[in-house]
Amino acid sequence: MTEGIVKKLRPNLGEFAVFGMVVLLLAAATHWRNGCWKSDVDLWTDCVKKSPHKARPYVNLGFAYFNEGVYDKSLEMGQRAIRLDPKSGDGYYCLSLAFQKTGDLNKAIEMGKKSIEVDPDLDMVYTHLGKIYLERSQYEEAAEAFRKFLSIYPYFPEVHLLLAVCYGAQRRFDQVVKELEWEIRINPYHSLAHLNLGQIYWYEFRNREKAIYHLRVALRVDPFLPNRTGVQKLLRSLEGFS
Q1: pLDDT of 170-195, one tens digit each?
Q2: In a domain, 180, yes or no
Q3: Residue 114 DSSP class
């Protein structure tokens, strides 16, 4: 009887042995790959070698080079990607990012617009274009780009703040207040939004109560607030104002 049980167990033991070998092989393969791909650049360089006629690996390699600050290689990979696939929205976006970093803002804008043209779902490109326009002091164009993005993602952090900067440069302070109030609705602890609201409410609208409230919040939530001493001085003067 014991012998029969042993015979029945033998195939299972064999299966366990095979399973253990598979696990060891997978572990070895993982170890080899981890040693081979020490960075995203290594990973996507390997993918490009294996799929040299596909655009996607070149796009991802371009982004990997961009993240490492190697902008000339990022441009090269983006250009290869759109040669392989002229409808690669991500390829044009990669080029736009790299052109911005190399200082060619005209090409950055051109490539950014092209990326949205070929792939309207690339919504993040609107914020990228807005920042380029802001860099060029083209405030209305920047505001339009940020508004387009916010019409899709109204609760996305920081973009209302960027839109407020555009309006501030145009001295449209009622719109600045609106966007900053939106920003603190998204993040109630956004110290710079509170700081700017406090100053605008006082210097532009002479609303002492709201100015005090926002300045207090800014000081409370951020111990490293810019010009903290000056802000404290302004707050004390407003609190003692009669």
Answers
A1: 999 999 999 999 999 999 999 999 99
A2: no
A3: H
CA distance 88 to 114: 10
How many other CB atoms are found less than 10 A from the CB of residue 46? 15
State the DSSP string of 48-98: HHH-TT-HHHHHHHHHHHHHTT-HHHHHHHHHHHHHH-TT-HHHHHHHHHH
Given a contact cutoff of 8 angstroms between Cβ atoms, the answer to whether 44 and 66 are in contact is no
Tell me if 151 is assigned to some domain. no
Question: In the structure encoding, which two tokens stand for residue 212, read together?
Answer: 């005090």
Query: Do the beta carbons of residue 176 and residue 164 sit within 8 Å?
Result: yes
How large is the average pLDDT for residues 20-33? 46
Cα separation, 114 vs 37, in Å, equals 32
206 occurs within a structural domain: yes
Residues 6+ apart with CB under 8 A from 60: 40, 44, 47
The answer to the question of residue 27 being in a domain is: no
- Give Dmax (Cα) for the chain: 102
CA distance 224 to 206: 26
**Tally of residues, the chain:** 242
Domains identified in the chain, total number: 1
Residue 199's domain comprises: 188-242
